[in-house]
Each structure stands twice: as structure tokens, then as C-alpha cells.
Design brief:
Order of helices and strands: HHHHHHHHHHHHHHHHHHH
Number of helices: 19
Distance between the termini: 31 Å
Radius of gyration: 22 Å
Shape: globular
Structural class: mainly alpha
Length: 405
């Protein structure tokens, strides 16, 4: 019989899972409520040795980031920003513990499934109603593209499941998700899928390589043999990924990366404390503009990038983390993600489909971070929820293999 505590945990996990797709405010509200309910949670000593290491490491990363934020700029504004945008780090061990019971995991997975179906149906409705591109049901277009890419990669390993119901469900949802993704014109999402899916098939599903290659050839061929508005847009957006001569967005992004790295090197030489501990979010734009003015490149950059240059966002999660949070936090934060990657890979090679999902989603997050700022806020919260639900053991959806890491 469920206790009130178990029931509350399951309800909150379910609502958080649904919110990932349909309710942005839920990613603020439900983690807070889950934190509060976790205080009264009794079974806090249920993690494997590797899960404990990840939990302790994430707490240390959060504390290191808080300390460097205080050292860099002891202001309420920056501390509040850090606590609001990067508290997802300390949320990870909470999820690892709460998702340990099989019932909790099932409830959370059902929540993800329901949220995904609602968002896909609404996206289809918007497309039918407007007939246009850049369809985004509940999120801004950038985050929706990223979330769709995560969702596709989360489901993709289940195409190769031994259970027919998983194969059928994933096939239907993937077909709709790919179609909606094509409508979003998301170049970074396209690129990430083009890189990750073939690598996954080669590493984990070699026996399906030839069949997959035939399917890809047929699909790509159909884009050219049966041209239409959707296929033409897809081809144009995909081709534009490598256009670094005339595409203004690409030119601006390359310039932002170059100048952002030079800004870090400048701080490392002129103000080591800023380089090591960061500038915080509130003053980063002002200090960056001041640096550009000193170098005499401000007007040149604006002209060169055709006005698409951003002074508050390098369009690169790694550079944003380096300049805003500092080198120390950069090392420990991405060290945590690499540690999680190692853990996922060790589980994935056992054939566990959920573990393979965690590996693909984490890889996508790291790759998308090269083109967009996904280092804090909603995207990493989505990531750690999908990751935690995929790697926490034991789970019996695909295999009975349990490894005590």
C-alpha cells in the first residue's frame, strides 16, 4: 500500500515530466515542491556506489559554483541568478533517489509520454492551422528544437527493442517527431541528429546498419524526387549549415566565438579573478562592450555581422560558462557531465535501451552547446531529468542486468 509520501512523490514527478513539454512554469514550480517533499523522504540511502559518486560530485559542483560566484561579484543579483538558473545541479541527486523505486520511474515515464503526445498533437494543429514553419507549441522555437532533438534520441534506441509494443510506439512517435522537427527549421538539431544517429547505429546496432542505410537513401531520395514546400525548406536549411560565406547567422556566430574566446584570454591576462571565477550574468554585457570598445572593434563587428552579433550571449555554452561563471566552474561542471557520460556508456554497452537513451541525450546536449547557450536554465533541467530516469538502477524495461558501479 502506498504511503502519502510515496503518492506525493509520484504526483510531483509526473507533473514535472509533463511540464517538460507543456508548461515552462512547471520547471520552476515542481522542482521546488520536490525539494520540499524530499526533506521528508525516508529512503535516502538507496543509491549504488557510482550513483553516490555522481550525487556527491554534483553537490560539490554546485557549492564550488556558488563560492566562485560570491568571490567574483558579491551581489544579490548574481547570487539570485546562480541559485535560480543553476540549482538544477543539486537537483540531480534528488532525482536519482526519488526515481529509484520502479513505480516512481514508471509514473515519470508515463508523464514524459503524455507530455510529448500533447505537444506533438498541438504542434500538428498549429501546422494545419497556419501551414507555416517554425512551429512551436509551448516553448520558444530554440528550446522546442532542442527538446525535440532530445526526445527523438531518447526514443530512438527503442526502435531496436526486443518488445514489439516498444518498437511500434517509438516508430509512430519518432515519425511524428521528425516531421515536426523538419517544420522547426532547426539547423543545430538537424546537425546533431545527423552526427549522433549514425554513430549510435555503428556502435550499438551494427546488424541494422545496412537496413538503416537503405531507409536513409530512400528518405533522402524522396526529398529530391518529390519536391514540396517542406522538403525544399529542409534541404535549404541543411545546406546552410556549412555556409560560412553568405549566411549572416553563421558569420555572426563565428565572430561571436572568436571574440568570446579572445575576451576570456584578455581576462586571464588582465584580471585573473574574472577569468577564474567569472563575471556573473548581470555585468557580463557591460564588461564585454567595454572590452570591445578598448580594442576598437565594436563598430567593425557590428558591420561584419550585419547586426546579428549578441553582446550578452556568445551562442556557445562553453564560452558563456567560461566568461560568466569562470574557468573553475567550467572545469568542475563539464567534468561532472563527462563523468555522467562515462557512467551512461558503461551501462549502454550492456544493451540496456534506457541507458543508451541517456547516452544519446547527453551527447546531444554537449553538441548543441557548441551552437547555443544551453548551460543553465530549462535545458539542463530537461537533460538531468531524462538522464536520471534512464540510468538509475535497477530497471527492468529492457534487461535484468544490474551493475554496481
Amino acid at each position: 500500500m502506498k504511503t502519502n509520501q510515496q503518492l506525493i512523490s509520484q504526483i510531483l514527478l509526473f507533473l514535472l515530466a509533463v511540464s517538460i513539454y507543456v508548461f515552462k512554469g512547471g520547471l520552476y514550480l515542481f522542482p521546488v515542491l520536490i525539494f520540499i517533499s524530499f526533506i521528508f523522504y525516508k529512503d535516502k540511502k538507496c543509491l549504488s556506489s557510482m550513483e553516490k559518486k555522481i550525487a556527491y560530485y554534483s553537490i560539490c559542483v554546485f557549492l564550488v559554483g556558488l563560492i566562485t560566484t560570491i568571490i567574483a561579484d558579491f551581489s544579490i543579483e548574481n547570487i539570485e541568478f546562480y541559485l535560480r538558473k543553476l540549482s538544477f545541479i543539486v537537483f540531480l541527486p534528488v532525482l536519482l533517489i526519488l526515481l529509484k523505486p520502479q513505480e516512481n520511474k514508471k509514473v515519470a515515464l508515463y508523464g514524459l509520454l503524455i507530455g510529448l503526445i500533447i505537444s506533438l498533437l498541438y504542434a500538428l494543429y498549429l501546422f494545419i492551422d497556419s501551414g507555416g514553419f517554425n512551429i512551436s507549441p509551448f516553448w520558444d522555437i530554440g528550446r522546442w528544437r532542442e527538446l525535440l532533438a532530445y526526445s527523438i534520441l531518447f526514443m530512438f534506441p527503442f526502435l531496436f527493442s526486443k518488445k514489439r509494443q516498444y518498437q511500434r510506439l517509438s516508430t509512430i512517435l519518432l515519425a511524428v517527431s521528425f516531421f515536426i522537427l523538419f517544420l522547426t527549421s532547426g539547423r543545430a538539431a538537424y546537425l546533431v541528429l545527423i552526427i549522433i544517429i549514425p554513430c549510435y547505429i555503428i556502435i550499438f546496432q551494427r546488424q541494422a546498419f545496412l537496413k538503416s542505410l537503405i531507409v536513409v537513401i530512400l528518405l533522402v531520395g524522396s526529398l529530391f524526387l518529390f519536391p514540396n514546400k517542406i522538403s525544399n525548406n529542409l534541404i535549404h536549411r541543411t545546406e546552410s549549415i556549412s555556409n560560412t560565406r553568405t549566411d549572416r547567422s553563421n558569420l555572426a556566430r563565428l565572430e561571436m566565438w572568436s571574440v568570446g574566446f579572445k575576451f576570456f584570454k584578455y581576462n586571464l591576462q588582465q584580471s585573473p579573478v574574472k577569468a577564474l571565477c567569472g563575471m556573473g550574468d548581470s555585468k557580463s554585457e557591460t564588461l564585454f562592450k567595454k572590452y570591445l570598445a578598448q580594442t576598437g572593434r565594436l563598430e567593425v563587428i557590428l558591420i561584419k555581422s550585419a547586426g546579428e552579433f549578441s553582446f550578452n550571449d556568445h551562442h556557445n555554452a562553453y564560452l558563456n560558462t567560461l566568461n560568466k561563471q569562470g574557468l573553475i566552474f567550467f572545469i568542475v561542471f563539464y567534468g561532472l557531465l563527462l563523468y555522467m557520460f562515462k557512467h551512461s556508456f558503461r551501462l549502454a554497452i550492456t544493451g540496456d535501451k534506457l541507458a543508451q537513451s541517456s547516452l544519446l541525450v547527453l551527447t546531444a546536449y554537449l553538441l548543441i552547446g557548441m551552437f547555443y547557450s544551453n548551460q543553465n536554465g530549462f535545458q539542463p533541467t530537461m537533460l538531468i531529468f531524462l538522464w536520471a530516469i534512464s540510468v538509475v538502477i535497477p530497471h527492468k524495461m529492457e534487461t535484468s542486468v544490474v551493475i554496481d558501479r
